[in-house]
C-alpha cells in the first residue's frame, strides 16, 4: 500500500507538470526550444523523486517486521492480523524478525513478587490473608482463632514451552491467578497449626507454607516459587492480650524456677563449705591427737632412758665405792634430799615438832 501510494503520487506530480506546460505558452515555448534535452531532464527529476520514497518504504517495512524483547523479559510471538499466538517458541531478550503484523506478548524473566499486606507505603497485590488457625488446645470448641497473615513470596516464570501453556491457561492475568492460588494455599496451611505454633514454631510454619505454595503453583501454574517471607501475623486483640498474660506468667514461673535453682546452688555451697570445715576440723583433731601421742611417747621414752641412765650411774657408783645395799639406799636418800627444793627440810628427827 505505501509503495502504490508513492508511485501514484509521483505520476500525479509528473502529469500536473505536463498540464501546466500546455496551459502556459511560455513553458511550451521553452520546452520546444529545449527539445529532447528537456524531456530527459524531466525523466531524471522523476527518478530522483522516487528513490527517497523507496528508501523510506524500505525503512518502514523493516520497522514493521523487526521487534525486540527487553533484557528482563521473555516473549511469545503473535500476529496482529490473525490474532494467532505461537506458544511453541519462547523468545529470549534481543531483536527478532517477526514478519508483517507480528508483535511480542511480553512476560517478566526476573523473579516476580506477590505481596499480601495492608502496610502503608508498600505496593501490595492483595490485603492480608484472613483465615483461622487449627484447633486451640485451651478452647477446643472454638475451632481455632481468626488471624490475618501478611507475607510475600517470589516466583519465576518458565523460559521453556511451558510459558505457552501458562498463556493458554491464564492469558495476561496469570499474576492475579497466582495470587488467588497462593492465598488459598496459605489459608489451608495455617489451619493445620495451633495458635501457639505461630509463636513457638514460626520456622516450621514458614517452611510448611513455602513447600505448599511451591507444590500448588508448580502443579496449577507451572511456575517455580523461590522464597517466602512472613512479615506479620495478627490475632484478635483480646486473644493477643490473653496470650501476652499467659506468656508473662510463664516467664514469671521461669524466673522463680531459676531463683529456686540459685537458692539450691547457694544451699549446696553452704553444705559443701560446712562439710569441708568439718573435714578440716576432723583432720586437724587427728593431727593434734597424733602429735600428742607422739609427744607423750617421746616423753615416756625419754623418761625411761633417763631412769635407766640413773640406775646405771647409781650401780656404777655403788660398784666403784663398794657400797652395800643399805649404803646405796642412804646415798639415794641423800641425793634426793639435796635436790629437794624446800629449804626447811628436817632430817634425822623422828618428831620434828615435839618440844624438848
From TrEMBL:
- Leader peptide range in chain numbering: none
Q: Where is the composition biased (Polar residues)?
A: 123-132
Region feature (Disordered) = 123-142
Question: Domain Band spans what residues?
Answer: 69-260
Protein's name according to its UniProt entry: Band 7 domain-containing protein
